[in-house]
Specification:
Blueprint: H1 29-41, H2 44-49, H3 54-68, E1 83-91, E2 95-98, E3 104-118, E4 125-141, E5 147-155, E6 162-165, H4 171-205, H5 209-228
Helix pairs in contact: 3-4
Subcellular location: Secreted
Pfam family, one: LBP_BPI_CETP
GO molecular function: lipid binding
């Protein structure tokens, strides 16, 4: 039986990991494939496509719209035309990474997608996005002294989001993107994280028993390695 301890916490500030992570030793390609296919069956991709970013984006563009007024007619009444749509999301292979902490590891969920962006009255353009969500897994002993798998800290950080425009932008569009890039990453991290973390939570809670056993063995193997060095 799985034990999901505490709440999944979405970290949307400017927090960064203090140590580099490496792929966990001993992990099999079959286990990674089972995790990836299981997450696909859990409707991970539809949860990305149905995320609404309209409200948060409109608030962010309230600041930059005043700057754009100097380039043309006032845009005060055009904030409602700020839109972004997640299109063609793809889940890459899930991986498991080591951590400095004992009896812990990190499940990394990487994905890519297109963002269809409408900025005020500017011509819509497509941007390519790549990011990943990380979830801690750790071992806890139950009352019988046996290890159980516990989870926490579902994280989609702004620093883990890369956004690149695929087409040459008009000067006005470049001006807008340059001025709101940090806010855009914060918004995407916050809104997408709120939408997909519950999906990941449910997926992990319902992992098949053989997958749970393999994950427990992997973390214990890593613990043995850390002790020997």
């Amino acid at each position: 039986m799985l034990n999901v301890s505490g709440l999944f916490i979405l970290l949307c500030g400017l927090l960064a990991s203090s140590s580099a992570q490496e792929v966990l030793a001993g992990v099999s390609s079959q286990l990674l494939n089972d995790l990836t296919q299981g997450l696909l069956r859990a409707d991970f991709l539809p949860s990305l496509q149905t995320t609404g970013l309209q409200k948060s984006l409109s608030s962010a563009f309230n600041v930059v719209s005043g700057l754009l007024d100097i380039l043309g007619p006032p845009l005060t009444n055009e904030i409602d035309t700020v839109r972004i749509q997640v299109k063609n999301p793809q889940l890459l292979q899930v991986s498991i990474e080591s951590t400095p902490q004992r009896k812990e590891a990190t499940v990394r969920v990487p994905f890519i997608s297109e963002l269809i962006v409408q900025l005020l009255t500017l011509k819509p353009f497509t941007a390519n996005m790549q990011s990943d969500i990380k979830v801690q897994i750790r071992l806890e002993k139950n009352v019988g002294g046996r290890y159980e798998l516990a989870f926490g800290n579902c994280r989609l950080l702004p620093e883990a989001i890369w956004i690149q425009t695929g087409a040459q932008l008009a000067p006005a569009a470049k001006f807008v993107v340059a001025n709101i890039e940090r806010n855009l990453k914060n918004i995407v991290a916050h809104d997408l994280g709120q939408k997909v973390c519950p999906v990941i939570n449910k997926w992990l809670y319902n992992l098949e028993q053989h997958v749970v056993k393999e994950l427990i063995n992997l973390v214990l193997l890593q613990e043995k390695y850390q002790v020997t060095i």
